[in-house]
Amino acid sequence: MPTDAVSVGHLSEARKSPPLLAAIAWRNLWRNTRRTWLTSGGVAFAVFLVVIARSFQDGSFDVMIDNATGMLTGHAQIQNVAFADDPSLRNTVADASRIARRIAGDPNVAAVAQRGLAFALVSVGERSFGAQVMGVEPDAERVISTLPALVREGTYLEKADDVVIGAALARNLGAHVGDEIVVLGTAKDGSIAAFAGDIAGIIDTGIAEVERGLLQIPLPQFQAAFGLGDEAHAIVVRVHGLDAVDAVNTDGLGDELDYLPWQRLMPEIDQTVELKRVGTRVIFGLVTLLVTFSVFNTFIMLVYERVREFGMLLAVGMRPRAIVAMLELEAVWLAVVGVGLGLLVSTALVLAVAQVGIPLPDVGEVLRQYHLPDRIFPSLSTSAMVEGAVLMCIAVPLAGLLPALRIVRLAPVTALRSDA
């Protein structure tokens, strides 16, 4: 490598001026353009890989969570603190209408619906089966749940005595749209709860476990039959984006009520998401390790080729630690170029693909059966951008530091006599 990269005067000034030393390091970096681009390209690829992988992963997670919570649970629920462990009829949310109106006024909330839940015996003709009876607000459910859109036959709840049931329950009962159905259970005060209505619609979710025990009736009729008054068992909340779940203002709910985000309502989904994210981080860690070895090898060659240059710098009075600092600044510049390039390309690609999505022609029909979109839409992961940038900006200078420390033990006379 040539030794005229900087003048002796500049070196003297650089020892007192970090900005000048950084400028010299930037200039030195481009003395071998090919090597610089190759090494920074490795850094850029690592950042690109983690941003792309996490963005597509987060996009698929958003769809999975929305689909899982959109059917029954919602993004969050307000329940009696005892209801999760003891889902009995008596563990209710008192004054439910007032609480629902208050939560609906939060700017983070998109929709709110009250629900009553009870287990009862349902009969059509001579056939009877156990089912979970759900009292719902039909208009609110159309906004907060996907079930009203899954009515295969008939219509959703439109009249006071309408009932909708799951397809599997309809098969077990031998029931059809228009048949009379009778619900018998136990009211809150221990008396007999009874309700009779006509089957207005049959819901087909494609999930037998849901359809087997699903029966919905209007909430006022549920409250009247089971003696609840203005009470509900769950106030279901849907927010504007999953990030807003924890931002909902729940002050004033009292000690008797609990705000449950979807992570607590569906812990298996949360655990699946976290497990997959850990796997992505492990893969990125391995890629980072490979890039670090590449940078380490680059700086070994760089130090070897510039031994005479470093000997000259030591001879004119530059301290070894100043030379090490200059090499570290070169590594920092290398990381900045690679990270910047990786973020630029990955961000542009994610934003472009997010507009149209990536079609899945081979599995699209299967996904549609489970009411999932047949395209993947990435969601730009800012956390992945930050993690990737920070990790590379730490790993690259560390990889360059070890070869640079050789300068500390370098003797000027020996260096000047080197053939490198």
Written description of the protein model:
With 420 residues, this protein is α+β, with helices and mostly antiparallel strands. The protein has two domains: 8-67 and 271-416, no CATH class; 74-265, no CATH class. The chain is built from 15 helices and 14 strands.
**Pattern of helices and strands:** HHHEEHEEHEEHEEHEHEEEHHHHEHEHH
Helix fraction, binned, reads 40-55%
The first-to-last residue Cα distance is: 8 Å
**Mean pLDDT, rounded to whole units?**
84
Descriptors for this entry?
420 residues; alpha+beta; 2 domains; six-stranded mixed β-barrel; 14 strands; 51% helix; elongated; disordered N terminus
Short description:
This protein is an alpha+beta fold. It has helices at 8-14, 18-29, 33-71, 96-104, 138-144, 167-173, 208-211, 219-226, 262-265, 267-305, 307-315, 320-356, 364-369, 382-404, 412-416, and strands at 76-80, 93-94, 109-124, 127-136, 151-154, 162-166, 180-186, 192-203, 214-218, 231-232, 234-239, 257-261, 358-359, 375-376.
Topology at a glance:
Blueprint: H1 8-14, H2 18-29, H3 33-71, E1 76-80, E2 93-94, H4 96-104, E3 109-124, E4 127-136, H5 138-144, E5 151-154, E6 162-166, H6 167-173, E7 180-186, E8 192-203, H7 208-211, E9 214-218, H8 219-226, E10 231-232, E11 234-239, E12 257-261, H9 262-265, H10 267-305, H11 307-315, H12 320-356, E13 358-359, H13 364-369, E14 375-376, H14 382-404, H15 412-416
Parallel strand pairs: 4-9, 6-8
Antiparallel strand pairs: 1-11, 1-12, 2-10, 3-4, 3-7, 3-11, 5-8, 6-9, 7-8, 13-14
